[in-house]
């Protein structure tokens, strides 16, 4: 089969690799019908995730059809259309029993495209299939559902829930990429007083407005001063960091109010300075985390009910064999206007629905 293989920092190729097989009795093999590219994949290519070894197939988000299952799999069977979760969960270890699936110690956590071969391929082996696959309702479009493999659970759980967003809050989201935009949409479910988005790219700030941001700013426009002006000098109740670079993290610490909450989503590849000489007296709570995906069933119900804005996040679509072109477009988002990029055989019908809706 064909797959996108990581060959070291800055190197990858769409090439032939062996088809996956059921290895353990809890495995399933899924034919990938729709796949997408995550900002974390770009971090891997930059060398920010050293655990990923050369030769690994990238990708951790997909929708597809189950083609084979191991003898112990009970919740899915061949022919089922499923969402492949970015997180694998054994369901038995201490962390899984606490619904902290991202910290699974039973051969789970973030495995696909990280410690084992991932989803940017024609087929993928999914360990612990009973806990790691979600059968999709017939009313849910596969190209919408793929956005619930990672970005929406991440934005909701690591950003909105860990950030403690409440009605009447001022919420600032730094980074209006796909996860940041999903955080804006998810924060809106809690009726904050206002949402402020910060990003370098005007196209992403436009998308942020479309998804519910009340005010937007580029970094050079003094977003910390904008937040202060809008809150009578107090600062934001919740600040969500969705970039993963030191400058954005430090900006977040300047924007959060005393007693406020900074929820870090971004994948950081280098140290960020924690200015405790300023923060220690301000009662600020800082949270981090990899997504657990415990919210995925709830988010799928909301998607089926038409309560989640998903299609507007997709700006570009390609056939699977254009994977390298898709990476180039996604990596140059400031120039291309790319938000979420999907790859599917039926890609023509998708172009460029999200962007058209924002015009």
From TrEMBL:
Cofactor: Zn(2+)
SUPFAM superfamilies found in the cross-reference section: GroES-like, NAD(P)-binding Rossmann-fold domains
EC number assigned by the record: 1.1.1.1, 1.1.1.4, 1.2.1.3
Domain Enoyl reductase (ER): 8-343
Keywords assigned: Metal-binding, Oxidoreductase, Zinc
A GO molecular function held by the record: zinc ion binding
Family: Belongs to the zinc-containing alcohol dehydrogenase family.
Source organism of the structure: Streptomyces jeddahensis
Coiled coil location: none
Enzyme class at the top of the EC tree: oxidoreductase
InterPro entries xref list: ADH-like_C, ADH-like_N, ADH_Zn_CS, ER, GroES-like_sf, NAD(P)-bd_dom_sf
The name this protein goes by in its record: Alcohol dehydrogenase
A family per Pfam: ADH_N
